[in-house]
Write a structure and sequence with these properties.
By secondary structure, this protein is α/β, with parallel strands linked by helices. The chain is about 35% helix and about 25% strand. It is built from 15 helices and 16 strands. The chain has helices spanning about 25-30, 95-105, 110-130, 140-155, 180-190, 210-225, 240-245, 255-260, 280-285, 295-300, 310-315, 330-345, 350-365, 395-400, 405-415; strands at about 5-15, 30-40, 45-50, 65-70, 75-80, 130-135, 160, 165, 200-205, 230-235, 270, 290-295, 315-320, 385, 420-425, 430-435. Strands 5, 6, 7, 8, 9, 10, 11, 12 and 13 form a 9-stranded parallel sheet that branches. A 7-stranded mixed sheet has the order 3-2-1-4-14-15-16. α3 (about 110-130) crosses α4 and α5 (about 180-190) packs parallel to α6 (about 210-225). It binds guanine and zinc ion.
Length: about 425
């Protein structure tokens, strides 16, 4: 056996200690340590608490960040790596946007070398923005999945991803069949699920691009491998919803299509859910399915305003998603900035502590990874971010005038982006340092 690998980091730490059922209780779970220490051993947290030099293993020098704020790595619960190059595609809403921009872009990922090139760029963008775990759409091409997992493995990053399933309403080079969806996904599950920190998600794009036969095969696969994830889109756009109702007239609505094919459950993540009906909220709760809330995307594509408050009322798990390339930023700080405005437009407030909860422990829970990620509990995986709260002249001025910690965080979420990420640690190791 090789020798244990240690690292030690000293500084100001902030995390959320426990999951809560209502947002009023989040403040009680905020843990702030002014002079703290985190020691990791083989990627797991071995000590976390007040600075105590006796906890630093012999021969290890603690990296000291006296000015910064160290938080758990951000978790992105919905993102498309092949769409990295097309962020900011002009003028369309969902269905036209897919045909005009997305499908032509995704066709390129048939080429493994191209997929590798973008996958490498994508992983670099994640860590540059402080994101240490993501649930990722690839394309229909199995090579696109290999390329992504291979790049993530270089950093030993915990990543969930899968091959897209589409057997209709898409260009020829982007479709598989019901049978190939099954066999190719199965081979990828066998190859990647649980290999290092990689996890697999069965990934039908959305109901309109799968035949009933394909959804049935996806459900069969999920039944065979209950430990893998299901990742898809749901109720994002009004025209999309109307189309699903036309294509699946015998179902009680959009979510019922996925539900009847066995695709709901505690490892199922549905991106958007902007326009869910009451009975669909109840089904999300009853099946313990999760929502990925993607505010920059919902605003950019004009999809609508996600009712975040409803997730608390209905006790439905929710995480934050950037949804690159319909979303406009890799930054969870920018995503929270837009999340706040989406709530404002509905007459609701999103507090900084609630935002912080969603970006860390809440998203970990949405991915059923809260036993491994989301805060600094001993034994969890050592993924964290060193934040510089005052990275620009405007931020410096604003931070000089903050009233308390929550105000400082709120200013960070409003004004922040990748300029605020001083360093990112994955699996206990520093994988990014801001130049
Ligand atoms: N619905 C189906 N495919 C997509 C996609 O690629 N992006 C978004 N935002 N919605 C979708
Ligand atoms: Zn998406």
């Amino acid at each position: 056996m090789s020798a244990a690998q240690f690292s030690a980091v000293r500084g100001r730490f902030l995390d959320i200690q426990q999951l809560v059922h209502q947002p009023e209780h989040i403040a009680d779970q905020v843990r702030y340590i002014e002079d703290g220490l985190l020691v990791s051993e083989n990627g797991k947290i071995r000590y976390f608490g007040h600075f105590d030099p006796s906890q630093i293993p012999t021969g290890i020098v603690a990296e000291h960040y006296p000015e910064q704020l160290i938080v758990p790595g951000f978790i992105d619960t919905h993102i498309h790596y092949p769409q990295t190059e097309m962020v900011g595609a002009y003028g369309e809403q969902l269905l036209e946007w897919l045909n005009t921009y997305t499908f032509p872009t995704e066709l390129q990922f048939k080429d493994k070398a191209y997929a590798e090139h973008i996958a490498e760029f994508f992983i670099q963008q994640l860590v540059r923005h402080g994101t240490t775990t993501a649930l990722v759409f690839c394309t229909v091409h199995p090579e696109s999945v290999d390329a992504l997992f291979e790049q993530a493995a270089r950093l030993n990053m915990r990543l969930i991803a899968g091959k897209v399933l589409m057997d209709r309403h898409a260009p020829e080079g982007l479709t598989d069949t019901a049978e190939r969806a099954y066999s190719e996904s199965k081979a990828l599950i066998e190859k990647w699920h649980g290999k290092g920190r990689a996890l697999y998600a069965i990934t039908p794009r959305f109901a309109p691009t799968s035949t009933p036969e394909q959804l049935q095969r996806a459900g069969q696969l999920k039944a065979e491998y209950p430990e893998v994830y299901v990742h898809t889109h749901l109720s994002e756009n009004k025209n999309e919803i109307a189309w699903v109702k036309e294509l699946f007239p015998d179902h009680q609505g959009y979510l019922d299509v996925y539900h009847q094919y066995g695709l709901t459950g505690n490892r199922s993540v549905f991106a958007h859910c902007v326009h869910l009906e009451e009975h669909e909220w109840d089904c999300m709760h009853a099946t313990d399915s999760a929502i990925a809330f993607c505010p920059t995307s919902n605003l950019f594509l004009g999809s609508g305003l996600f009712p975040l408050k409803k997730t608390w009322q209905k006790q439905v798990k929710v995480g934050l998603g950037t949804d690159i390339g319909a979303g406009t930023s890799f930054s969870q700080l920018q995503t929270l900035n837009e999340a706040y405005k989406v709530q404002q437009l509905q007459g609701e407030k999103l507090s900084a502590f609630e935002s912080f909860y969603h970006a860390t422990l809440g998203s970990a829970k949405a991915l059923s990874l809260d036993h491994l990620l989301g805060n600094f509990h001993i034994g969890k995986e050592a993924d964290f971010v060193v934040l510089d709260l005052a990275a620009t002249p405007l931020q410096k001025l604003r931070q000089q005038h903050v009233k308390h910690l929550e105000d400082a965080l709120f200013a960070l979420f409003t004004l922040g982006d990748d300029r605020n990420i001083a360093a990112t640690y994955v699996d206990g190791q520093c994988v990014y340092v801001r130049k």
